[in-house]
Amino acid sequence: MTAPMLLGEFARTLDERYRVSLPAELIGPWADGECILAKERPGCLSLWEAAAWKQRREANVELIRQKILAGKLEGRLAQVQTLGRLLSTRHRSVRLAQRGRLIIPEGFREFLGVEPNSELLVVGAAVCVELWSPEAWKRYLAARMPRFGKLFQSLSR
Predict the structure, then answer these.
(1) Sign of CA dihedral 65, 47, 5, 28
(2) How do the domains of the chain map onto residue ranges?
């Protein structure tokens, strides 16, 4: 059985303690488990089911490790270091509280760029749930929506 597509756009308020209630239709299978919160792009965080995230990350890290051991990344030390730094700060394990509430941890709050008692958007991104500042979401949609038809066609062939 395949995982359901996580779809939908929901306006929510980030409370004074940096908590947000996530829609049940987006978090149903993960409600009681460990999740991974990741920095995607300025103004956007993503929430992943932990096992799926760890499997993807470990496979990609192992591929890079093997390339390093085989000498295929000679002369690219600066890029490998940059990748290591970004991997070190990019994600964090989180657990949803009662009623699907997520506490945005320090270090992720600034990246999201949403002040307490302000609106944010919770968006189903097919394979994960994303949290967006409204301004960043508008910019993202303005840049991507004109290509929606071509993207849909290319993925559905």
Answers:
(1) positive
(2) 6-51+94-156
Q: pTM here?
A: 0.85
Q: Tens-of-pLDDT digits for all 157 residues of the chain?
A: 356 789 999 999 999 999 999 998 888 767 667 899 999 999 999 999 988 888 888 888 888 889 889 999 888 888 888 888 878 778 999 999 888 899 999 999 999 999 999 999 999 999 899 999 999 999 999 998 888 888 878 888 7
Q: Say if CB 37 and CB 141 are below 8 A apart.
A: no
Query: Which of 100, 135, 97 lies closest to 115 in space, CA to CA?
Result: 135
d(CA 40, CA 58): 18
- CATH architecture, domain 6-51+94-156: 3-Layer(aba) Sandwich (3.40)
- Residue 23: what residue type? P
| Residues listed for the chain | 157
- For 37, residues 6+ apart whose C-beta sits below 8 A from its C-beta are 45, 46, 47, 91, 92, 93, 94, 102, 104, 105, 108
Number of neighbours of residue 149 by Cβ within 10 angstroms: 9
Contact 22, 122 (CB under 8 A): yes
